[in-house]
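Two records follow; treat each independently.
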Amino acid sequence: MLRLAAASLAGTAIEFYDFFVYGTAAALVLGPLFFPTFSPVAATLAAFGTFGVGFVARPLGSILFGHFGDRRGRRPVLVASLLLTGASTVAVGCVPSYGSIGVAAPVLLLVLRFLQGLGLGGEWGGAVLLTAEHAPAGRRGLWSSFPQIGPAVGFLLANGVMLALSASLTDAQFAQWGWRVPFWVAGVLALGGLWLRSSLVESPRFLEIDDHARVPLAEVVREHWRLVLLTAGALSVGYAIFYAVTTWSLAYGTERLGVGRTEMLACIMAAVVVKGSLTPLVALLSDRYGRRPLCLLGCTAAALWMFPMVALLATGAPLLMFLGFLGALLAFVTMFAVLGAYLPELYEPRVRCTGAAVGYNLGGVLGGALTPIVATALAEHSGRVPWGVGAYLTGVALFSLGCFALLPETRPVEVEVAVVEPVAG
C-alpha cells in the first residue's frame, strides 16, 4: 500500500504541477504576452479565459479516460493521461508570443490548454481508484488521501520554480524567457512519473468485475445522473476556494495592491504547505467519524470565512494575507482530504471510474473555471476591499453545503457479530 500510495501521489503531483504552472503564468505574464492589444484588466481576463478552458476539458477527459478505466482497467489510464498532460505542457513553453506570430499564439495556447485539461481529467480517477480499491476498508480514507496530497505538492513545485525564477531574474528576463522554464521542466517530471507507474499492478476490485459496462457514460447518465450533479455541486466550493487563493489573489495582489510577486507567492505557498501536511490527518478522521460530516463542517467553515479572507487580503500585509489564505485552505482540506475515499464509495465498481471522475471534474468547471474570471470582474468594480468576491465565494459555499446535505454517508461500518456457543443436539 505504501509503494502504491507513493506512486499515485508522485504521478498526481506531476500532473497537477503541469496544470498549476499554467495558472501561475496566467496570473503573472500571459496576458501582456499573448493579448497585448487588450487593456491590462481585459488581458488578465483573457488569460484566465484560456486557464478556464482546461477546466472545461477536464470532464471530457474523465469521460474519455473513464470509459477505458471502466472497460480496460485503472492502470492504463494513469500512463496515457500522464503522457498527454506532460507533452502538452512542454509545448506551451515553446509557443511564440503574440509579437512573433500574431493571433496564432493565443489560439495555440488555447488548444494546448485544452489538451492539458483533457489529460488531467483522466488522471484523478485512475490514481484515486487504484489506491482506494487496494486499500482495506477501515483505512480507505487514509490511503486514498495520498493522491489528494498530489495537488498541493504539484502547486508547491510549480510555484517554487516560478518563485525562484522571479527572484533571480529581472522583469524583462522573466517576461522574455524565464516563464517558459517551468513548462520545460514538466517533460523531465513526466518521464520520472512514467518510470514510477511502470511497476503498478491493476486494481483487485476491477479484476473481480465479471460484467463490465459496455458504455459506462450512458449507464452513469441513465442511473446515476442525480448523484453526478450533486457531487459536482458539492465540490464546486473547493475549487472556488483553491483557485481564488492560488490564482485570482495572485493577480489581484500584484496588479491592484502593488504587492511583489515574490511576497504573494510566498504567502500562498506557506498556506498550501500547511494544507497539504494536514491532508492525511483529516482523512484519518474520516475513517473514524465519517466522510459526510467532515464535508459539511468544511463547507460551513468556508461560508463563514470568505468575507474575513478578502478583508485580510486587501491589507496587503504578508502575515495577514497568509492568515486569510490559511483559514480558507483549512476549510478546503476538511472537505477535499476525504474525497479519494468518498467519491469511489458513492458509485458502483462497474462505472466508478467514469462516475466519480465526471462528478469531480464537473465541480471544477463550476468552481475552478469561473472563479478567477468572476472574481477579477467583481474586484474591478469594488473599492479597496473586494466585498463582491467575498459574497460570491460565500454563495458558492452555501450552494455546496446544500448539495453535501443531500449526499449519503459511505464510511464502512464495523458490524459486531455475536459469538453463540453451540448447544448439544
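The next record belongs to a different protein.
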Amino acid sequence: MVQKIEVIGLGAGDIDQLPLGIYKKLTNTTKEIYVRTMKHPVIEALQAEGVSFVSFDEVYESKEHFRDIYQEITEKLVEHSLESPVIYAVPGHPMLAEKTVQLLLERNDTAVTVAGGQSYLDDLFTGLAIDPIDGFQFVDATSFKRSQLDYQHHIIFCQVYDRFIASEVKLELLEDLPADYQITIVEAAGSNQEKMTTIPLTELDHVMEISNLTSVYIPPVPQKQLHHTFNRLREVIAELRGTKGCPWDKEQTHESLREYAIEEVYELIDAIDAGDDEGIIEELGDLLLQVMLHSQIGEDSGYFTVDDVIKSITDKMIHRHPHVFGDKKADSIADVYTNWDALKQEEKGKQRKSVLDGVPKRIPALAKAYQLQKKAAKVGFEWENIDGVWEKLNEELAEVQEAIGEANQEEIERELGDVLFVLANISRYYKVNPEIALNRTNQKFISRFSYIEKRLHEENKDINQASLREMDEYWNQAKVEE
C-alpha cells in the first residue's frame, strides 16, 4: 500500500508572507502537523491560533551526522503515514535545501505531494543587492567539499545551524581566502527580523546569532587572490599564448619545449635529494608549467585540451586501481603490481608487440637498462637469485680486462657497456634506481671536490699545482665532515 505524505513549505519569513491557501490548510486541519524543526517564526504564530505541531528537534540531539538525522526523520514520517496520511511542514520551500524531502521523493512506497513555500532566495538576493544572473552557488554548509566551490561567482551557504558548522565553513574557506576577507552573515532573510552583518572571514564562528535561519554570503573573489587555483593558472597560460601574450610563449611548440621538460625533471630530483621543500614546490610548479604549456598548444591547435589530459590520467588511475575503485582485492604491494601490469597489458596490448615496448627512446642509457631488465623480469627472464648476477659481473669485468690487454678500443667499449648493464640489474634486485643512485654519487663527488677547491683557495694554492696527496687529504676531510 502506498502511503501519503503532503509536504508544505512554511516560507522564509513570518506568517504575513504565508499564502492564503497554505494558511487555511494549516489552520483548518485537526491533525497534528509534523515539522522538521520548531525554530521558525510561522510556527509560533500558528500555535497561537491552535494549530498543533510535532517536531523532530530531538533527533538532531540524538545523532552525530546530518545524513543520519535526515534518514531517521524520513523513516519516522513513513512510519506515521502507515496509520494515516501525514502533513509535514518544512522551512522555506520544500524543494530548496530540504534533504528529508529528497529522501521521501526517492522512495517507491510513499506518495509525496509538495505545496507552498516561498523560497528565501528572492529576499536574500534583494537584501544583498546581487543579481543571480552573474552566477551564484547555493551550498549546503553541512555537506560540501572545498573543491566544489567556485570563488569567481557569488556563494551562499545555507544550513549554517550553529557555531560548529560555522567553524567548519570558516576553516575550509581559510584554505583559499585571507582571514580578513569580508563576508556577510544573513539572519532570517525576508522576515521582519532580517539582519545582515558584514565581518572578516576569521570572525565567522564568533557571531552570537547563529540559528537555522542563518546563511553566509561570500562575494566573488578577485583574481589576484585566486593564484593558487587551477582555473586561474589555466587562464594565465591561455593569456600568455593569446594574441596579446608573450612572444616567447606564443612561439613555443611541443618540439621546442622538450629540453625544458627534461631540465625541470632533473631540477625537481635535485630539490628532492636536497630535502628542500621550498625547492620542491618551485620545481613541481615548473613541471606543471610544462604540462599546461603543452596542453595549451594542443588546445590552440584544436587537437586536445588540458581537460583531455586530466580525463586520461583520471580514467587510467581508476581503471588500474580496481582494489580502490572496484571490487578487486590487493592485500600487498606485490598484488598491486600484479593487477597494474595485467591492466596495463590489457590497455596497451594492441599497440605493443614486444614485452620490451614502452621504454622511452630518449631515456638515459643507465635508466633504460634498468627499465628493460625490469620488463624482461616480469615474464620470468631473470636470474634465479642475486648470486648469479654477481658471478656475471665478475665475468664481464674479466672480459673488460681482456679487451684492455688486447688494446681493442671498440671491444673495451662493448665490455664496459656489459658491466654497466649488469650493474643496472644488480640495482634492480636491491630495489635501487641506478640513475638516482649515480646522480647522488655525482652530487657527492661535486661536494667533496668543491671542498678541495675551497681549502686550496684558502691557502692561496693553485689547484693545478696541488699534489694528489694534498687533494686526497682534503677529500678525506670532506668525507669526515659529511
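Discussion point: The mean pLDDT is 90. How would you locate this feature using only the C-alpha cell line?
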